[in-house]
Amino acid sequence: MRIVSGIQPTGNLHLGNYLGAIRNWVAMQDKVTAEGGECLYFLADLHAISMPHVPADLAANTREMIAALVACGLDPERSILFNQGQVPQHAELQWLLNGTARMGWLNRMTQWKDKAGKNREGASVALFTYPVLQAADVLLYQATHVPVGEDQKQHLELARDIAQKFNNDFCTEDAPLFTLPAPFIPPEAARIMSLRDGTQKMSKSDPSDMSRINMTDSADTIMQKVKKAKTDPEPLPSEKAGLEGRPEAKNLVAIYAAMAGSTVDAVLGEFGGEGFGKFKPALGELLVEKLGPINERFLALREDIPALDAILRKGGEKARALGIPTLQKTYDALGIMRG
C-alpha cells in the first residue's frame, strides 16, 4: 500500500483540520508503515498559486504547516513529508497528462464552478487545470490509495479516468503504466463545524476568531472560546437522535467524542440530562489536555527554520527518487525523446 495525500499551506491550522484530516494521516502512517507500506504527505504550494496569494506568506505558511504536521505526530523518518515545489516532476507530469484530460471532464468539476463563481473568464488557467495537477500528484508515485473526503471524491474519480485513458491510449493491456488509485475513506473522519454557527464548517476564513479553535491557542483562549460557543437552552439528550435539529449541541458533542476517542452515544451516556454549564468546562479541559502537548511542540518547531527546511529538503529528495521513474516512462510512452 502506498498512500499519497496533500494539504494546502494556508496557515492558521485549526481543530477542524486536525480532526478532519491530520489525525487520520497520523493513524494511517502508524498502520501503513507497520505493514511495510509507504505514506507520502505533501504541502500543495503549486496548487496554492491557482488563487491570488502573497509570495512571502506562502513560504511562511509552508514552514508553519510542516511544523504543525510534525507536532501532530507525523514522523519524517516514517513518512515522506515535502512540498510540491521540491519535486518539479509534479508539474512536468501534469503537462503530459493535459494531453489526456478532456475539457468536458474539467468543466464538470464542482470545485471549479464554486471557486470560479460567475467570473469564469477572470479565473486563472491553473484553477481550471487544478484537478489535472491533483491527478499528477498521486499518479506520479503509483499511489494505491488516496484519503478523500466528500468534497474530493470527484477529483479522485477524474484521476482514475485520466490514468485509465492514458493506459488505454499509450500502453498495452498487459503492461499499464499508471496504477488506478483507490479511495481511502477514514472511518473516523470528523466534520467539525463553527463554534458560532453549527451549520457551517469550521474555517480560517471566518472573520470571527471565536468561531474556531486554533492549534496555536493558549489554554485560557481555548477555555474562553468553548465557554462562549453558541448553544441552545435545552439540556443534552441521552440519545443521539435527540441532537437532530440542534446543530451547535451536535457539534460540541461530536468534538468531545472525537477528542476523547469515544462515540457520541457514549458521551451522551455520560452527560445526558446535563446542561452546557457542566458540559462546556469538561469539553474545554479535554481540549486543553489533548492539544496542549501539540501546541507546545508546534510553537518550538515553528521557530527552528533550518530544521523545517531540512525536513522539506530531505522529503523532496525521497519523493523525487520515487517519482522520476514514472515520469520517464510517461515520456517514453508518449514518444518524447530526452537526452
Output the keywords:
single chain; mainly alpha; 3-stranded parallel β-sheet; two-stranded parallel ribbon; 13 helices; 54% helix
Describe the structure in your own words.
By secondary structure, the chain is mostly helical. 54% of the residues lie in helices and 6% in strands. The protein has helices at 15-34, 45-48, 55-71, 89-98, 103-107, 110-116, 125-139, 153-170, 219-227, 247-260, 264-271, 276-302, 305-334; strands at residues 2-7, 38-43, 80-83, 145-147, 182-184. The strands form 2 sheets. A 3-stranded parallel sheet has the order 1-2-3. The chain has a two-stranded parallel sheet with strand order 4-5. Strand 4, helix 8 (153-170) and strand 5 (182-184) form a beta-alpha-beta unit. The relative contact order is 0.15. The model has no long low-confidence stretch (mean pLDDT 93).
